[in-house]
Design brief:
- With about 180 residues, this protein is of the alpha+beta class.
- It has 2 domains: about 90 residues, no CATH class; about 80 residues, OB fold (Dihydrolipoamide Acetyltransferase, E2P) (Beta Barrel), CATH 2.40.50.
- Helices cover about 45% and strands about 35% of the residues.
- The protein has 5 helices and 6 strands.
- The protein has a 6-stranded antiparallel β-sheet.
- β3 and β4 form a beta hairpin.
Length: about 180
């Protein structure tokens, strides 16, 4: 009895962490793909709607509930994160190497995100170290008019000026969306 309960909890936590990891990796792939935000989200929701009846038995096993609403939300969340990651992942990893080309983009805006660092003092206590960590982004406009916020290194950020051009290597993805390599 206890072993079965432990396996159930382990499976639930594994599925939850898997969904969380897939959504984070999907966002990382979104940052490297030149696409409007609503296209992969809409496609993932549509795929999740069609996939949720197929995995409804799994979600019923996962939640141990007979509530139709809870099982539907659970199956939509699992299928949605899986399809979001798979759409952007297939577009990125199966991009055509023969279509690789360099394209100039105009820097529209520079964004510097500043966050505080914390250290652990006790079991449930965090204290600021007084140090900061920075994330750098460049908002660029490509030749075809697409605007994209792209993560940049500190070196690339400091060397870029608003209105200047930067060269990016692009490929055509499997689904037809350009990918920054």
């Amino acid at each position: 009895m206890n072993l079965a309960r432990g396996i159930d909890y382990t499976l639930r936590i594994t599925v939850l962490l898997g969904c969380l990891l897939l959504s984070v990796f999907g966002y990382v792939l979104y940052e490297r793909t030149i696409i409007d935000w609503w296209l992969p989200v809409g496609a993932a929701l549509m795929m999740a709607t069609f996939m949720s009846p197929l995995i409804s038995k799994f979600s019923r096993f996962l939640t141990k509930s007979q509530s139709k609403w809870l099982n539907t939300v659970c199956s939509l969340a699992v299928a949605g994160t899986l399809s979001y990651f798979s759409l952007l992942g297939c577009n990125y990893w199966f991009s055509d190497p023969a279509s690789e080309h360099k394209e100039n983009a105009v820097v529209i805006e520079k964004i510097k995100d500043k966050r505080q660092k914390y250290r652990r003092v006790g079991r449930n206590r965090m204290v600021s170290t007084g140090e900061y960590t920075y994330s750098y982004y460049l908002v660029v406009e490509f030749d075809d008019g697409k605007v994209k916020k792209i993560p940049a290194s500190a070196k690339a950020y400091s060397r870029s000026r608003t209105g200047s051009t930067r060269t990016y290597t692009l490929r055509d993805g499997l689904l037809g969306y350009k990918v920054v390599k």
